[in-house]
Amino acid sequence: MSIKEPDPIAILTRRLIKYQVLSLVATLAVVASFYVVMTGQGTDWHPWLADRATAMELLLWSSIVDLIAMYRLANLSRRRLILTRVRMFSGV
């Protein structure tokens, strides 16, 4: 019996979805912390956000995570596009 290899495009698609979800969560954290920093109304959402220093730290770390996720998304999208074109032109 032979073992079927997984489809590389399907694997890349799953990784893309994982990083899209991570980017979504990080973007929501950036928006929330930016709102708290600009308005100072962090206690409306959570008592932890009452301090501006905490909101700035959340803004910093969520921005870093979002940038890393976007970088990985760009690389994976490019790789998937190349694999799709190779498959399309090779007749597989």
Can you walk through the features of this model?
The protein is an all-alpha fold and 92 residues long. Helices cover 77% and strands 0% of the residues. It contains 2 helices and no strands. Helix 1 runs antiparallel to helix 2. The radius of gyration is 20 Å and the shape is elongated. The model has no long low-confidence stretch (mean pLDDT 88).
Features:
92 residues, elongated, 2 helices, mainly alpha
Q: Secondary structure elements and their pairing?
A:
Layout: H1 8-39, H2 52-90
Helix pairs in contact: 1-2
Strand content: under 5%
- Number of DSSP helical runs: 2
Secondary structure: helix percent: over 70%
What is the multimeric organization of the chains shown? single chain
Secondary-structure element pattern, one letter each: HH
Query: How many strand elements?
Result: 0
Brief write-up:
The protein has about 90 residues and is mainly alpha-helical. The protein has helices spanning about 10-40, 50-90.
